[in-house]
Design a protein that fits this description.
The complex is a heterodimer of chains A (299) and B (269).
Chain A (H helix, E strand, L loop, with lengths): L22 H6 L2 H19 L35 H37 L1 H16 L2 H12 L3 H10 L3 H15 L2 H8 L4 H37 L11 H13 L4 H34 L3
Helix pairs in contact in A: 2-3, 2-11, 3-4, 3-6, 3-7, 3-9, 3-10, 3-11, 5-6, 7-9, 9-10, 9-11, 10-11
Chain B lengths: L5 E10 L4 E11 L4 E6 L5 H9 L6 E10 L2 E2 L5 H7 L4 E4 L3 H4 L6 H13 L3 H14 L5 H4 L9 H13 L5 E5 L7 H18 L2 E6 L2 H4 L5 E6 L2 E7 H6 L4 H8 L14
Helix pairs in contact in B: 4-5, 5-7, 7-8
The chains are: A mainly alpha (299), B alpha/beta (269).
């Protein structure tokens, strides 16, 4: 049989297209996202290394200087025991942010595992896991969290457990949805045709393609965790005095602000919570837009 | 005739639960070193038959009766794990749409490494050398510099070439080409078809073409089997099918291929 011999076609090698804006450039072009990132970094820096430059410790009592308004010595004033509010806000912030990060880490891990199993294996496994997620969704989370902490007793582990127990479902659902569509995609089929195992398919071929929405969910989850922790502490169920957290500082400040007019006691911890939530939301929004923008430019 | 490399023996595929048959007692025997074409319209069962050979039938659909033998040994009797190991090593698949068949998040070298490590336990430098060799074989220019490129940095035709290289990576005995050119434009189609034909001769492989387009297989296949509605309508050598089609459906298919009669069979479409 006279077959046409394959010509060795030579392609002109095109340079990598540099005209397409990268992910970071797209993110940076978004003003709100830029603001969020800078604000959050500044707050993180303050909270982490700020205490080194403050001449007071958060639990240093000086009754001769109690209830001072903000001044150059006490940037955010003092409380009824003469403790420096600035030192306490920084110290409390470290704990609040740490709790939020760990809780989100736990929630994402649980969510990824549950979502991956449900999406990949489908069938009754999927049904059981997703109905459990629905149950968690349908509970009024703050009340159950309060109940949970009241039962176990306040503490680092129980607060993290309480927060993450009610925030893994979004990740699980997002990942399950991505996996359901990716599982049918051609490259997963092709990888299966080349002999890839289940674990390999999930870990190497599906997860990396499903991560983008999870990053966004994680970022927004940090905001929710900060709020939940603050709410718990505000209700007196969070970390116990004298340990400061932002929510705890607000709780201590109630009487001072309302009857004593000492606005600085509530204002500064409140502003910090506000700034963190705002910037984290801006970051999440920015990430989302940058991911979508890159998709629009055709990968 | 020697032992066929692939023997599909009265294979029926369907929904076991609803007792609905989609592929009905199809038999096909592929001789080693030959190029066989499985031709049929959409829904004729050609892709299902191919998936059954690879053990990749979608959930709910299963083999109802019959057997698939590779080198005389039944594939259906194998445990799933051993079966999966055959995919990519003994049997390899060139998928329909290479644009979508490569993982967009991994660079080319990593995708080769995954396959080479799974089947040949090749890693590091050995895998890299083999990858360069394969890419060169399928005509990717300056392969060394493309190892860290991602799929989106290749053109459509080049992606299909990469996909073919990936399918060849573990030296398969049987290469299944499932409409490998449907996603490509006409000039590239010809290049890809020629490439597979050339590689088949160079590597002494058996190729099973799956297509709806008789024009594509004219000149590429020695034997042709025509499927319709899940039944084998006619099979024979390429000359028989193209010059003396017996079944009316085969004649219809031939008549539906506009360029076919301008080209002498056997000299390339």
């Amino acid at each position: 049989m006279n077959r046409t011999s394959a010509p060795r076609t030579e392609f002109v090698r095109l340079p990598r297209s540099s005209s397409q804006p990268g992910f970071l450039a797209l993110y940076w072009a978004n003003g709100a996202a830029r603001f969020g990132l800078i604000t959050l970094l500044v707050i993180l820096l303050l909270v982490l290394i700020g205490p080194l430059f403050v001449p007071f410790t958060p639990e240093q009592i000086d009754l001769s200087l109690k209830n001072q308004a903000p001044s150059l010595v006490h940037l955010m004033g003092t409380d009824e025991l003469g403790r420096d509010v600035f030192a306490r806000v920084l110290d409390g912030g470290r704990l609040t942010i740490l709790v939020a990060l760990i809780a989100v880490g736990v929630a994402i891990t649980v969510g990824v595992v549950v979502g991956a199993i449900a999406g990949y294996f489908g069938g009754w496994v999927d049904n059981v896991l997703m109905r459990i997620a629905d149950v968690f969704y349908s509970m009024p989370s703050l009340f159950v969290v309060i109940l949970l902490v009241a039962l176990i007793g306040p503490g680092f582990a129980s607060i993290i457990l309480a927060i993450s127990a009610f925030s893994w479902m979004t990740t699980a659902r997002l990942l399950r949805a991505s996996i359901l569509s990716l599982k049918k995609s051609d490259f997963v089929q092709a990888a299966r045709g080349l002999g890839a195992t289940d674990l390999r398919l999930i870990a190497a071929h599906i997860l990396p393609n499903a991560l983008a929405p999870i990053f966004v969910a994680a970022t927004l989850g940090i905001a929710a965790a900060v709020l939940t922790e603050s709410a718990l502490s505000f209700l007196g169920l969070g970390f116990q005095a004298p340990q400061a957290t932002w929510g705890g500082l607000l709780e201590e400040a109630q009487r001072a602000v309302i009857s004593g007019g000492q606005w600085w006691r509530g204002f500064f911890p409140g502003v910090m919570i506000f700034l963190v939530i705002l910037s984290v939301n801006f970051i999440g929004e920015g990430l989302n837009k940058a991911i979508l923008g890159r998709k629009e430019h055709g990968e | 005739m020697s032992t066929p490399i692939l023997e599909i023996d009265r294979l029926s595929i369907g929904f076991a639960a609803q007792n609905r048959v989609l592929v009905n007692e199809v038999s096909l025997s592929v001789q080693p070193g030959s190029a066989t074409a499985l031709v049929g319209e959409s829904g004729s069962g050609k892709t299902l038959s191919m998936l059954a050979v690879m053990g990749l039938l979608p959930a709910g659909i299963s083999v109802l009766s019959g057997d698939v033998r590779l080198d005389g040994a039944s594939l259906l009797d194998l445990p799933p794990k051993a079966r999966r190991r055959k995919n990519g090593s003994d049997i390899a698949l060139i998928p329909q749409d290479a644009m979508a068949a490569l993982n967009p998040t991994l660079d080319v070298q990593t995708q080769f490494e995954l396959v080479l490590r799974t089947h040949l336990r090749l890693g590091g430098a050995a895998a890299k050398a083999r990858t360069i060799e394969l890419l060169d074989q399928v005509g990717i220019p300056s392969p060394t510099s493309r190892l860290r490129s991602y799929p989106h940095e290749f053109s459509g035709g080049q992606r299909q070439r990469v996909m073919i290289a990936l399918a060849l990576s573990c030296g398969p005995k049987l290469l299944i080409a499932d409409e490998p050119t449907t996603a490509l434009d006409v000039t590239i189609q010809q290049q890809i078809l020629d490439l597979v034909a050339r590689l088949r001769e160079e590597l002494d492989m058996t190729v099973l073409w799956i297509t709806h387009d008789l024009g594509v297989v004219a000149g590429l296949a020695d034997r042709v089997a025509v499927l319709r509605h899940g039944r084998l309508v006619e099979s024979g050598t390429a000359e028989q099918i193209f010059y003396h089609p017996e079944h009316p459906y085969t004649r219809q298919l031939l008549a539906a291929t506009p360029t076919l009669f301008d080209v002498e069979p056997g000299t390339g479409a």
